[in-house]
Amino acid sequence: MDRQDKKKDNYKGAERQSAIIFQRKT
């Protein structure tokens, strides 16, 4: 359970970073 939570957090963090990069690019 903890492991899955960490994976979810990581995915969320990456998604957020991607969105920020995309925003900066535009």
UniProtKB/TrEMBL annotation:
Residues 1-26 are annotated as: Disordered. It comes from the Eukaryota. It comes from Anguilla anguilla (European freshwater eel). Residues 1-15 have a biased composition (Basic and acidic residues). This is Uncharacterized protein.
